[in-house]
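Q: Structure tokens for this one, please.
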Amino acid sequence: GYDELSICEHLQNLIDSLMKSPYQILTSRPYNTDYLKYDAQMEIIGFTNDNIEKYVNNFFTSNEPQKSKQLLTFLESKPSIYGIGHIPITLELICSAYGEENKQHAITSGTTITITSVYSKIIEWLCRRYLEKFCNCDKRHLNLKDNSEVIEDCSEILDVIGSIAFQAMEKSSLILDKTLIEKELRKVSPKRPSELRKKLLNIGVVKSLTADDDSTNVEAAKDYYFIHLSFQELFAAR
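A: Here is the predicted structure, written as tokens:
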């Protein structure tokens, strides 16, 4: 986006020329763009309250009407949690974690339910899914593990993600430069960075900008991003 553009001196003439062209489509966050005038502006917004209700009801099958009702009741009773539910990707992950067998109570229980605690449960669910799907862990065995054990099993890659998130936040960057990714991967695993890169992508919170090709060499040449800024902030604070 334009708000992330860092214009080098040798590119200034090119940028000036582009900004004077008669036809432009510019993407940006709304701040620092007041001086830019366009014939039409469009804003990407999150879910409305009605969207949340429809999404949750559609997420669960007709055989699980109680799950959708219980989750909606929980969300509506917690304004801060309901707030992050307006983010489509976050609502999807909340529904996925809540829909997992024996995980409903884990999401909604506790004397103090905070945004951080809900995100922590989402991360736990992502780790469980990763261990089951990509590490061939038996689901019954995983269900016997508590949160700390699951996080410990994924600690290596979670630490890498945290370091990447922190350094990117220091630079106020949402795009994770491939050089930064490669540096952090090699710091932890100098002999097998490609294997660690697969783990990075398989966990599910970091994506490649163009993920159409599974080739390791191609993936190594790409930049990356967190599925949402809130996850980048969460991992940076770990």
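A few notes: The radius of gyration is 21 Å. The first strand starts at residue 175 and ends at 176.
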